[in-house]
Amino acid sequence: MKDILTLGEILQARGVSRRGFLKYCSATASLLALPPAMVPHIAHALEQARRPSVIWLSFQECTGCTESLTRSSSPTVEGLIFDSISLDYHHTLQAAAGDAAEAARHAAMEENKGNYLVLVDGSIPLGNPGYSTIAGMSNYDMLMETVEGAAAVVAIGSCASFGGIPGADPNPTGAVSVMDLIKDKPVINVPGCPPIPMVITAVLAQFLTFGQLPELDRHGRPMAFFGQTIHDRCYRRPFYEQGKFAETFDDEGARKGWCLFKLGCKGPITYNACATMKWNDGTSFPIEAGHPCLGCSEPGFWDKGGFYNAVSTGDVGSGKAFAGAAAAGVAIGVAAAAMARARQKKTLKEA
Amino acid sequence: MDLLDFSRGPALQVALYIFIAGSLWRVFGVLMLQRKPDHSEARKSGGIGGALKVIYTRAFTAPAFKKATTYPKVLGYALHVGFFAVVFLFIPHVVFFKGLFGVSWPGLPNNVIYFIGVITVGLGLAILIRRLTNPVLKLISNFDDYFSWFVTLLPLVTGLIIPIRFGIRYETLLAVHILSIALLLIWFPFGKLAHTYFVFISRGTTGATLERRGAKT
């Protein structure tokens, strides 16, 4: 690596106070469910850490994940730490273009072989290599080539984690997730549409501190952030228990901030940290703004029925199928009765 | 497709189709049976009045049997009331019915429903204990009785576990709850739970017949 400054030196140069830095370390320890005794270790490890090389690949995506990370209204410690990684390739943010950009990626891969992180946003189309290309290279080829020498891969956003909107039915491009393709490297999913910036940086902080990835759930998500449902930590939960629900977006219940379950809130089946970490520098999260949770950090969220259908509603099928079942039932019943009558008649005749 | 998608989708659909087809099969199969000819001279018309009277009077315990049947009757009524309250007044259920029929009605706070649910499960256990300890009841009970009891109580129990969790994920518990309901729907028309359709039909038929014969009901 060309830059030999440690993160501690970089943060100091940026004017981040010791107090502010330790506050961030405490918050990170708390978010990662680590004991307070780990805070000095995190601080020490982060201070000593050299800028890790990160290659960010963007495939079938909307750039919302990058926007989420870069559009914070004021610089935060975690933002500065993110600034302080060696982001060697990100075709939205980098100044270089064309061959120069690709040369930067190859150089970073060569110089940091076995140690660099690959961050991916967007799904990978397998239907036709031409659906999404960068510098004439298919997304699949670029992913495989880049990941070969990586220490780990972080799938940023629901498209990279689970296929997301490009993978929604009928999935015209044959979009797949990173974990569908990468089996021989650690893959950590940070889903969300977009994911919470602090979650991304905390995962990176954990990697820098311990050199290993956090504990993951069954969908490959860090347990520390995806261990509880939105519903579990929602400030409107008491209204759910009291049976107080908003029926429409502008009724009395909505104005009073009652539970949005009836309006289709997917909070009960969505694992994410929105309700605790919130967005826009801790201002609010979708439910606080009056809109039901869409469940964007869950696999296949786009195909799980209507956004405004309550979790307790089922896909009960079509009216035609019900009519068919009813007709079949009547027909069988009538036939059974006719057979019974015939038997009865025969018995009477014999008697 | 994960377990929740399966339970809310294909499993629930198939269960509902079987429930509808099975219910109509049973009801039409019975209603269209040949009636036994009654050769006695009619004392009264034996119409709807007699039927309704017996439906009403049989809802209460006759004085002669009060001592023997009050306890099971109270248990039975309370179980039915509790079950109906949980099924039709729990707001997530009301939302489900709205999705199915397009109409909704007010519900009760969740904690009230949880309380009623626990009481109802307790009543179900009391009913089972009585069945197992009463020699006559035990003798006449078969698989249908026990399985019908099981599939009735199972959705209550799986539903009550959801808010407690026991460390299990919400969506898994919800899926198991919906699958237990699917099992109930599939068994409903074919076992003794079909008394739902026949209890009033049979009492009404008995009432009409008895009135025709001039019996005091």
Please tell me about this protein's structure.
Chain A is an alpha/beta fold. Chain A has two domains: 7-226, Rossmann fold, CATH 3.40.50; 228-340, Cytochrome-c3 Hydrogenase, Chain A, domain 2. Chain A has 16 helices and nine strands. In chain A, the strands form three sheets. A five-stranded parallel sheet of chain A has the order 2-1-3-7-9. In chain A, a hairpin with a 2-residue loop joins β5 and β6. In chain A, α2 packs across α3 (39-48). Chain B is an all-alpha fold. Chain B has a single domain, classed as Up-down Bundle (Fumarate Reductase Cytochrome B subunit), CATH 1.20.950.20. In chain B, α5 (110-133) packs antiparallel against α7 (143-164). The termini of chain B are far apart. Chains A and B meet through α13 and α16 of A and α1, α4, α5 and α8 of B.
Multimeric state: heterodimer
Strand content of chain A: 5-15%
Q: Please identify which CATH superfamily of the largest domain in chain A we are dealing with.
A: NADH:ubiquinone oxidoreductase-like, 20kDa subunit
Please trace the helix and strand order of chain A, writing H or E for each element: HHHEHHEHEEEEHEHEHEHHHHHHH
The coarse silhouette of chain A is elongated
Mean pLDDT across all amino acids of chain B: 91
* Superfamily (CATH H level) name of chain B: Transmembrane di-heme cytochromes, Chain C
**DSSP E strands of chain B, number:** 0
How far do the termini of chain A sit from each other?
104 Å
What is the SS-derived class of chain B? mainly alpha
CATH structural fold name of the largest domain in chain A: Rossmann fold
How many distinct helices of chain B? 9
Overall CATH class of the largest domain in chain A: Alpha Beta
List the secondary-structure elements of chain B in sequence, H or E: HHHHHHHHH
Helix/sheet category of chain A: alpha/beta
Poorly predicted ranges of chain B (pLDDT <50, ≥5 residues)? none
